[in-house]
Batch of 2 targets.
Target 1
Amino acid sequence: MATSSTKRSLTRFYWAWGILTVVGVVLSIWLPHRYVPRMMSNDGNLSLTTMILFSVLAAPVASGVYAAALHIMHADRYRGEGVPPAAEPIRENTKLLVTWLTVSAVLTVFVLVWGLGALAAENSTSGNPLVVDVTGQQWVWTFAYPGTHVVSNELYVPDNREVEFRVTSLDVTHGFWVVNFGVQVDANPGVITTIHTTPDKLGTIEVRCEQFCGLNHAFMDAIGHVVTPSQFSAWLSSQPQGA
Amino acid sequence: MTTTLEHTATSAEPRGGGLARHQNFGTAIVAGVILAWVGWFVARHLFWSGSDNWSDQVATMTATGWMIGFWIGIGAFNAPFRWLVGNDNSRDEDLYYAGYKQGRARYWKYTTDHKVVGVQYIILTMSLLAVGGILAMAIRTELIVPGTHFVNQQVYNSFIAIHGMVMILALIVAVAGPWGNFVMPIMVGARDMAFPRLNALSLWTLVSAAFLLVTVLAVGGLPVGWVVLGTISDQAGVGMDFFAMTIVVFTVSTTVASINLITTVITMRTKGMTLDRLPIFVWGTMITAVLALYAFPFFFVAELNQILDRTVSTSFYVASGGGTSWLQANLFWLMGHPEVYVILIPAVAALFEISSVMARKPLFSYKTAIGAMVALSGLSALVWAHHMFTSGWAPTLGGPFMVTTEVISIPTGIFFLVLVGTLWRGNVWMRLPTLWMFGFIFNFIVGGVTGIYLSDIPLDEQLHGTMFVTAHFHYIFVGSVLFGAIAALAFWFPKVTGRFLDERLGRYSFWLVFIGVQLTFGAMFLSGLKGMPRRDASYSLAFEHTNFISTIGAYIIMAGMLILLGAIITSWRKGEPSGPNPWHANSLEWQVPTPVPLENFLEDPVITQDPYHYGEELVRP
Ligand SMILES: [Cu+2]
Ligand SMILES: [Cu+2]
């Protein structure tokens, strides 16, 4: 009797698992596309892909646990009065344990391999980047272009060329984050930290401070533009020299 | 020990006590304030007022005065002093200190009985949650619409730091404090903790530190964020000195508590209580105590350096003097990551305990569960730099830290296997603790999965420092740990009070808090995805809708928590009587009478099997 009731309810469990997985996968794809800002660099694209991939992988796992929890609430709930009688004692299930460990290990290894690969790709550099010196101070960003005397509070970068941001701070630690490039690094006083990325779309970008830096931290934003190489040269030469 | 204090007492009425008869929470505060004033007064004249460090020196001395005064006032030094002068406490006096026949007054005194300390931890946790919760409501109210309306930026910036630290303190003690003290010694068959006076000491040092932390708001605040990053906190006023002193004393408290707990489990187990029969909650709290012993000294050193930088012009963290903020960040996160598991593991261990009792089924994979907790603790010591992936410190170590961090998903996954495996095919008793446990399972999945995103460096370079992170760890701390803590409260409440926690109010509270968490932190994930940084007092129009939903959700959580508070108060006074073993559970704390007598057992119990033998043969001694 116990067997037949278990079988019947397990069907529901599998259905719940399947449906929740489908919902999870749909959300995994839809939510990032709906909410993540427009990604305009190789690293930005990679962030979005990674986010979607991890979500899709997590969907069946999370759904499995949810389906199991729902199944327990439905099928294993004690509906009688008073203290429930003891259930069949199952202390171990080696097969289940090994399966569980294997699945979680395989997923972890996959996530790791993916992440380490992406990290290596991100760290590789073209060798001829455009250098931008970024300086944070309470509560503005300034961008300087070595080799020129251009200093600006708006960030201009050409597309399809690697940019290297050399970041420092004049006072406290700030967080230099180019939202649409999917890269960030802290601006530390007395040190230069670097990040690089390659813009691949034209348009407006946003720079924000993501490290708490005092009174006006919330307003420490800057606007940036990804422009064509010729527009970029034109902009550089139009700037007042030696500012 | 075969004879109890009570049996050897020479009189039915508590005698002795001496000075302690006149000491309580009130005298502690008075003495604390007096010595704080003395410290302030002396420091103002002792130090050269032209120095840059003067205000910090004065503040540090004031805080020190407060602490010492508070400890003297509560009676922490009475017994050590008596011992020093060669006139140790008599049996009668120890009995007095244990709170023998002192009614409710003993909850406001330096009482050594572990059950009294446990109740004091309940009160402390609830007070801290109240303070942190009020600040949370102020923060969410400020963020309901763009712009600054409700509190100004300066105040907001202090609120986020104090909200963070108060809540961290609250959650560190939320499960391990009340239940590690109240039920854990009974679970192992002990008559008290190994060091009852140290137990009182750890509680009251923590209370003195908690007061100081809240006082920060009155002395100019702490507009730096709870991680008190070296460079920005260098700009902070005397609130930073109070904060640093809070942490120094807090570390003393946790160290003392951890040593006490570990010693109790190792040396005070009753006959037959072998390690493989130990209730899983005891394992959980012991593992947590070991981890706390490792983790919190880093915080101690981190803040001691900060005090030295500020009072005697060292340059541990000051770039202009050759120091680096990265040292502070490393020390902070060496503490900060293990601390997450110091918070999480007791809650999970309590849920393991609850799952077996409520499913009327043995705990599934007992040894694997212990192994997972040990593995998690061990790994947690090796992952701290994942909080510094984007700091610029040691980029070459990114890969290794990514590996250690992601391996954590394996022991974490075991937690789900054990919980779900225990409940699966059980006869699940859907009472209040069970409900909160299901809430935990739901939220912990969300918190866990989103943690994987943040462990991936390329993705972290987008999400770090955003509201996504805030949402992630609130799913862990509120959605998981707080749910676990409330489940534990509902589960052991009858042991403390002899009454059930009101089932109906508890359910209303559950649904409100559960829905509130999904709204608040679900929408917060979206704010983060859209690119909203953390700790912003204001935000652009792009984040308008998701923030509005978060704030409404926060109000719903508050309503739920207020109902829970109402349930606790009314049930404590006149809830449905429960008897000594309302859940028909097997572990020792349910076998002693309620209220639990002083020293717990009239005869030392003998253990023949673990407490999870539902549906199995009883083993006769
Ligand atoms: Cu900044
Ligand atoms: Cu961490």
Target 2
Amino acid sequence: MESVVEKWTTKVNTITLGATKQMGGTREKTVTVGGSSTLPYLNFEGAWPNPPAIAIEMWDREPDGWPEPLADAYADVWKDPAKWAKRAVEYGAEMLCVTLKGTHPDFGNRSPDEAAGVVKDVLKAVGVPLIIWGSGDFNKDNDVMPRVSEAAKGENCLLGTAVEKNYKTLTASCLADGHKIIGESPLDINIAKQVNILISEMGFKLEDIVIFPATGALGYGMEYSYSIMERGRTAGLSGDRMLAQPVICTVGQESWRVKEARGSEKDFPTWGDLKKRGPLWEATCAATLMQAGGEIVVMRHPDAVKSFKSLLREFTA
Amino acid sequence: MALTGLDIYKLLPKTNCGECKSPTCLAFAMRVAQKQASIDQCPHVSAESKEKLGAASAPPIQLVTIGAGDFKIAIGNETVLFRHEETFHHPAGIAVTVSDKLSEAEIGARADKIVHLIFERVGMKIAVDMACIMNDSGDPAKFAAAVKIVAQKAPVALILASDNPDSLKAALEVCADRRPLLCGANASNYQAVAALAKEKNCPVVARAKGLEALTDLTQKITAAGVKEIVLESGAEGVRQTLEDLTKARRYALRKSFRPLGYPMLTCMMGDGDSFLPVLKAAAYIAKYAGIVVTDAIEPWQLMPLLTVRQNIYTDPRKPLQVEPGVHKIGEPGSKAPLLITTNFSLTYYTVEGEVEGSKVASNILVVDTEGTSVLTAWAAEKFTTDQIAAAMNKYEVEAVASHKKVIIPGLIAVESGKLQEESGWEVIVGPKEASGIPSYLKANWGG
Ligand code: SF4
């Protein structure tokens, strides 16, 4: 039979997160993602050397309105970031995504020092690499992230997010303190490239950037993320260096917003057991987006993590 | 693959005789390529050329219809590898299994359950559209009895899963009018199964290990006179399945390779794990499955799967929009807040989700921004004071918000002064991000 092997010209960048003692940090392990030379798990035509890595999301403050399945998993620890971090690692997190929600002016307005303290506590409590995610309020992030970056200096974390309208402060911090960076774009390939160009013009290596193309929940725009990721990836594999970065997806955060994942059985009696429905909604979104090339998946529920992992195990076997 | 004008030109006599009413053969070829003329209009074209053109104009992936009347689905006839290149056209069938080893009462109960796997979301109904009856017993009579019960109870397309031609025959006696998918034919039984399929005009599954064996088998089945075929590669493991699905699609689309130009079926059984088959099925729906068969039957298993299909088969060329106007969340009274957002579905459903999550009954005024998000719409002047004020008038928001207060997205805070002047309403600047809505509503409108 004729060959239908696709000749991709470029590889996705390989990126390693976390720094062990020898590397000048305190992490017990590092995590490496990317490096593939084809679309997800098409091993017949290329390498897919590193399976997607799963990060579990945790906050610097007690979350507001997380539904019951998440409360069952974390409510006894979510007032204490160090305990929450340990719990997430027990649930199988290869990385933690520390979301500094509490620094947002509308969600507690915590100080940069408080945020830095949380990051230090988490670094002390667990040995996995960290993703540190700002609150999204530009002014506040520009106060908070430099302090946090400094507090985690040498740990080779992944910090986010740099956006078209606000990237300079974060890029400078990551450069100074040896971190990798997340470039965010709103479901738009051209803006994704633009953000990468802006960041790299400050002397930041393209190989140290992770793309966050914005994630849509299953049923609520997942297909937009899917196609943006797939378009970006096919371009990246075809030689576009501005799109050859690994991709991060915030599956947990988006999934648990939607009523199909969080609506109670009382409100939706025909939808079945919430304790299964919510985690499966999250895991299904992860499994689908993985086919478009997500390398780092940020999740919430332990059962979603567990089943997504078993899927990855089968793909890697 | 469609031929270009030049490809067609090469097949013409190149005499420019003009009998086709085109001045030249080339002009005629261009018109044929654009489907403005038919090749038959040239009296001099050779039979061989005609055949080549006919083969090239057939779709690279056969359209297969399964079922009859209202219980019918159509799969295949896909044209692209990536949905962003155009769209995926024919949503994959989602089939739930029923074993003929169950008691009659259990079969009936399972069929009833399948019927109820229907959900309404974003204004559309999504439902399990196939049932796959498994001849686990090996017994033709038991199989036919099971098929009969399912056919009666479940208004869905049927798959008859048995490699025993006697079982298929017995089952067809009770459901041939439903035009089920025979599942199926393999290297040893294909003669009998293809004959049945031909006699009853049913589509058939060709099952063989690997694409090469499948190529061989589908050629034999077509030679027996069956056109509508579904492939099953019987791959072991998810990676091999993904490989087969991907390669078959590429052979069909890139190489116009007829023997693999059919939709493909994959089968996921739980083996005690209730999540994993759903995740696999989701991956296969994204990557080219025409039918997924699963023993999953709980609503919390099928709802995400049906939603994956709905998402993946959404036409990416159309911006998803929601109806402009006032949308009610909960049962808003006269003191309920009135929020404003755009009609881009992604924006709207995020806002709706957060408002719902806040448990504060509210009204949301959706402004027609031609399916663009808040900032994009604002930058394009589709979501500035003029349009918002016009929408407030048009949809008579005073009827639902006699308090005359309106909440605009924080991202367009600059509009607040002008809108206040223009509308005479009190304009409140809401949170910048939807995630800020619940705490905002609870704090300010929760009373
Ligand atoms: S009728 Fe046929 S041969 Fe004559 S000009 Fe038209 S295409 Fe050419």
